[in-house]
Amino acid sequence: MILSALNQYYERLNNDEQGKVPAFGFSEEKISYVLVLSEQGELVDQVPNLTDEKKPKPKLMNVPRPEKRTSGIKPNFLWDKTAYVLGISLPKDKKSEALFELNLPTFEACRKWHLSLLEHSEDKGLKALVIFLQNWQPDNFDGSILTQEILDANVVFQLDGTRQYIHESAEAKRIWGSLLQSDDVKQAMCLITGEQAPISRLHPAIKGVSGGQSSGVSIVSFNKESFESFGKEQGDNAPVSEKAAFAYTTALNYLLRRENDQVINLGDTSVVFWAQAESEQKAKSAEAFFIKGFNPPMPTDDSEVAALGAELEKLVKGRPLAEISPDLDPNTQFFILGLAPNAARLSIRFWLQTDLGHIQRRFAEHFQDLALNRQPWKTAPTVWRIILELIPTRYDSAGNKKKKDINDAPAHLAGELMRSILTGQCYPRAILAQLLSRFRADGDISRLRVAMVKAVLQREQRLLGKEDIAMELDDKNNHPAYLLGRMFALLENIQREALGKDINSTIKDKYFAAASTVPYSVFPRLLTGSNHHLSKIKKLPNENKESGHNRKFDNRQLAEYFENEISKIIIHFKEAQFPKHFSIEEQGRFSIGYYQQKYKPSKKNISNEIDSYDSQGTE
Q1: Burial class (CB in 10 A: 0-12, 13-18, 19+), 352
Q2: DSSP letters along 169-181, please?
Q3: Eight-state DSSP code of residue 420
Q4: 452 vs 427: CA distance, rounded Å
Q5: How far is CA 529 from the centre of its chain?
Q6: CA torsion, points 37, 41, 44, 49, in degrees to nearest 10?
């Protein structure tokens, strides 16, 4: 299914007029330099093939596909690293004072193979290359025009006075084509196309996967006898034709290139995606919609901020796709593949083949699960922004929050979270455990953290067909954990009113961890302490400079309001017998109750009530 879809995507790319992918037998590789030869086989120039960035990078070039070097010496056709083409490389010993070291075995293999293939050619470029290989000696490097920068780089050849590279000539392509059609390759039915064709023994390497080997990795490989069956070796165990293997790996390498905006890297997971629509424009619009939902681009001015915010707001509310963009068609086919490195192989984290309408519904469900009455975001949070909340909050000497480093985040949870969003399955319970651990450790009970706790529990409830968790304070919710979370917030507010809003620490800093896990051991003590605080509030003058408030009502009414609110909660616990232990789910409900009570919206203009009191402060 996956390889078949990638094979079809390659055909679509290959038929594009812009030539987005190379033809069968060729590959896009990073080429750093071009060696220019005269017709007499003399080296006349070294031309860089680098980008114009601050840190120049090699440009991609279509060249004959590389050999897969799992072991041994295997030269590439008409291009390669300097160790093969020139017999020189950087010293392997970094402490060595030598500028370069010789690689004679690789050079001799490259020279011998190319001379056997090209010695009868009449093409001017190929004849010049033959003469160069016959005359070049690796020892000549010091006295040549070559510079130190070329060492270990990939190079190609060009005939002086021509614009075409030597490997692009018709004769070179003919010779390469004959090599691809070797009679030594076994034929069998391809599992992807169903055709009788030469079978690929080793599939081309896949490069660009976050955390994968720089030399490339494989989806299909058999590198141990325990993986083989019926005496078959390597690719014969899962026969895929050379053309199909080339097609799916080329398509995947194309998707993994960042400049194509069709990959999202989340921790150890690389997520590639592509759309199939009636037109190229609709497909591009669908892909842009997807990446905006998970990884919105950084706006450059206020107008872009407003436009992006409006689009994401429609997405959050689950509005029809046509309202977001007229090019978005809910029937557009969409393919999403999550990959993670596993030594020399790739693990398939998830695979989803669906339509754009389904993805939009999943987006809307995700944001609805996150929703709180005090919306926990100004712009819809990305997966990375949510994952950042799992990192401990640290403060500098001035008490300001330090910037979090994404490298400290649990990498595997990013991919798991994205899979839950796309499939509509439960969020990983590990996210809930991490968040609760952070509450206890750093005391940062932020809006987005609580929203994610609520999302984990809300989705589980919804999938089980149970009652949803309210977006705001729910007076009818009699769950013990939720009630005690509310009570803890009230007790903290009482303490703040009695001792002043500028106190260094509150009961949250000292007792939140114990109250949310073993309430039996903490709440009796907290309630006793609150009685002293309530007595102090009643004795405070109405213009209370100590608390920082100046109210029209007196503090005795305020104390009675607090007493009444606590009584409404404690009545649900027989003889004030509190639970001895809370499960992880109950700890989540405790934190939601705490947050919603502490930051509940104020009630205004209600006569004869103190409910207008709003002590939530700021987060």
Answers
A1: middle
A2: SHHHHHHHHHHHT
A3: H
A4: 9
A5: 48
A6: 30
The type of residue at 30 is K
Place 293 in a pLDDT band, splitting at 50, 70 and 90. Answer: confident
- DSSP classification of residue 405: P
Strands (E), 433-527: none
**For residue 587, which of 459, 468, 465, 429 has the smallest C-alpha distance?**
429
N-term to C-term CA, the chain: 49
Identify the residue whose tokens are 């005795």. Answer: 556
Distance CA 408, CA 388 (A): 8
Structure tokens at 362: 């999943």
> What is this structure's pTM?
0.78
Distant-in-sequence, close-in-space partners of 35: CB < 8 Å, separation ≥ 6: 43, 45, 46, 47, 85, 155, 156, 157, 158
Both structure tokens of 279: 């037109």
Q: How many residues does the chain have?
A: 619
**Measured between alpha carbons, how far is 375 from 370 in angstroms, rounded to an integer?**
9
Say if residue 345 is exposed, middle or buried (CB neighbours under 10 Å; 0-12, 13-18, 19+): middle
Range in 90-94, 285-289, 312-316, 603-607 with the lowest mean pLDDT: 603-607
* DSSP summary character for residue 583: -
Following DSSP, what letter does each residue of 314-360 receive, concatenated?
HHHTT--HHHH-TT--TT-EEEEEEEEEETTEEEEEEEEEEEHHHHH
Q: Which residues, 6+ apart, have CB-to-CB distance to 184 below 8 Å?
A: none
Upper half-sphere CA count for residue 89 (Cβ side, 13 Å): 19
For tokens 């999938």, the residue is: 463
How many secondary structure helices (H) and strands (E) does the chain include? 19, 16
For range 306-325, the mean pLDDT: 72
Q: What is the 3-state secondary structure (H, E, C) of 141-158?
A: HHHCCCCHHHCCCEEEEE
Which of 119, 242, 113 has the alpha carbon at shortest distance from 171?
Answer: 119
- How many Å apart are CA 166 and CA 125, to the nearest integer? 6
The C-alpha atoms of residue 20 and residue 23 are separated, in whole angstroms, by 10
Nearest to 488 by CA among 450, 515, 470: 515
What is the chain's mean pLDDT, rounded? Answer: 86
Tokens standing for residue 298: 């950084």
Alpha helices in 443-479 (DSSP H): 447-463
What residues pair up with 60 in beta bridges, in sequence order?
30
CA distance 431 to 453: 8
